[in-house]
Give the backbone structure.
Amino acid sequence: MIHVLIVEDNPGISSVMRELLEMEGYEVTLAANGLEALEAFDRVAPDLVVSDIMMPKMDGFALLEAVRARPNGAGIPFLFLSARSEQAATSLARSLGADDYLFKPFAPEDLLIAVRAKLDRRRALQLLDTRLAHVQTVRMLANAVEARESYTRGHVERVQQYALQLARALGWDAEALLLCEFGALLHDVGKLAVPRSILNKRRPLTYAEWQLLRRHPETGRQMLEGVDHLRGAIPYVLHHHERWNGDGYPGRLAGHDIPREGRLLAIVDAYDAMTTNRPYRLAMPVEQALDEIRSQSGIQFDPAMVEVFIQLQPLRPEAPPARLDDAPL
């Protein structure tokens, strides 16, 4: 649960703010001055501080400086409450690292909007930091998968680009897009456990080989579920071979029971497979590939996502035709 620390010496104002935020599902701690707030900050580790400026014992400016000096306080959003007569002090607040301020009196909705905005921004920055910190590891894993298959060079990068284009067109938020970036790169990570002889075999697979290859989504899930910052990529890894009509694997899920991440990746993964050369056939022209995707709407693919993907019309070099049967395993 998101925790908000409210620092306000007027009990009437603080109680109203607490009620508003608790109705929105936030956990709230109250402090009547800066000293109380600093003790509460160390105790509860809030996700956001909302503080008055003029208070006894320790004012808002001193509180902000003390919070920013703490190792866990540099990135905590800090929202000042300011009386109209204190407007000139807001420039000082910003210089000390305040994220925003509200002028008293303010409407309840103004408070809720400001709180949501600060928390959303913090969440986006945290995700960005996570992405930057781990993107090299993710790319290393993705490249390790590609290095084991002789014909898939560039596949994960293209699938990632298509997946992000489609996710944006579908209106996914910033958090979902960051997870999409990881998930698309890692969708075949389970193939690290599949022998090279199977991955690169040009002749039809035996039943035993096919069964072993079909385990790669579940193997990938097992590889990622113990890694906190990659757990959000699991729906891409586990469900990109499910089919809208329930004939896919590993769970034989159908329709909207398939997580949207798997439904999205199924389309772009198949599209890239059809529009790139493989040892056993040449790439399909773009328009024919789009026709094949459309023909499988409601059978293999989510119909609503197919329509959006068709409208995007990603461009790829044209080549002689192949068939949808050559979609990735």
